[in-house]
Amino acid sequence: MLTPIRFLTLFMVSLLLCACQTTPYSQKSQLNLVSREDELAMGKGASQRYLSTVRTCRDRDVARRIKRIGKAIAEQAGVPDANWQFHCVENGQFQAFCFPGGIIVIYSGVANACETDDQLAAIIGHEAGHAIARHTAKLLSKKAVTDVIAISLGSAMAAGNGAAAQGNADGLSALASVGLLLPSSRENEYEADTLGMVLMAKAGYDPAQAVEVWRKLVDKNADRLGKKSEKLSTHPTDTKRLEAIQAYVETARTHAPGAQATAPAPDPAASSPPEAPAAP
After folding, report:
1. Comparing C-alpha atoms, which of 195, 196, 212 is closest to residue 116?
2. What residues pair up with 21 in beta bridges, in sequence order?
3. Closest C-alpha among 185, 183, 154 to residue 171
């Protein structure tokens, strides 16, 4: 007899074998049940609805700057089927986000806070990182799986009691959110940071400026640091994120144009084993 537990085991093994995809650069493998066509359609529809309700940037120079930098980064992403678009929205908040498929929105507040093109490239690169890693599709996939597991286990635990089954499923779903979905969201943010730094380096921007951008974010959020537990958040704490970005700068720089060609040649003497002492 195929019990619920055995069914779930077979279901999960099948998913892991058939529906995992690897992210460029990070080589991270994640479950993805959403087709590319559905992902692109979802992003297009959601972005059109959102953009119809907001006001675009009044400063056309800022909008052009965002599109110019965005185009340079998109050219390095290696995702020819992405629907790359770069929009500037009139809003003073320090905020940016990406719709599935590569439609990126930058608030005027963050664009104006970025003093250099390198700093703005860090913001756009981060959002492009979400797009090439297909983070929205992967989170939706994990949510679908956790819902199936919660409903199946809830029914098995309730032994035919419909109300109890629903209650069990709701409780298990909430536990899965804290234990699986929120940590995945935080991991996605770290991955988007590193992917963004690689993309900006490949496009000729200095990844060290990502550190300066996130320092600005830390300063803006200083009044609330430490008040919200990371375990209950979709994002890492600002301080942890800044530390991770600082640690990745030199790795990102290896992706810059000509990085290998300009690297100093190794000193043969330094790598050669010492000569054996002469015989007495």
Report:
1. 212
2. 30
3. 154
Output the DSSP codes for 12-44.
Answer: HHHHHHHSEEE-TTT--EEE--S-HHHHHHHHH
Q: Judging by beta carbons within 10 Å of its beta carbon (0-12, 13-18, 19+), is residue 156 exposed, middle or buried?
A: middle
Task: Please answer whether residues 100 and 163 qualify as being in contact, where contact means their C-beta atoms are separated by less than 8 angstroms.
Answer: no
Longest dimension (CA), the chain: 91
What is this structure's pTM?
0.72
**Token digits of residue 1:** 């007899």
Angle at 221 between CA 215 and CA 223, to 5 degrees: 125
What digits encode the pLDDT tens for the residues 235-262? Answer: 556 788 889 999 999 999 999 998 754 4
Per-residue pLDDT for 85 more than 80?
yes
Among candidate residues 193, 183, 261, the one with its CA nearest the CA of residue 25: 193
Written as one string, the DSSP assignment of 257-276 is: TTHHHHSPPP-HHHHSPPPP
User: What digits encode the pLDDT tens for the residues 35-50?
Assistant: 899 999 999 999 999 9
145: its two tokens: 């799986």
Distance (Å) of CA 184 to CA 25, 31, 94, 187, 240:
18, 11, 23, 5, 16
Residue 264's region, left for phi above 0, alpha for psi from -120 to 50, else beta, is beta
User: E strand or H helix at 121, and its extent?
Assistant: helix 117-133
Q: Which residues of 201-238 are buried (b: 16+ CB within 10 A; e: fewer)?
A: bbbebbbbbbbbbbeebeeeeeeeeeeeeeeeeeebbb
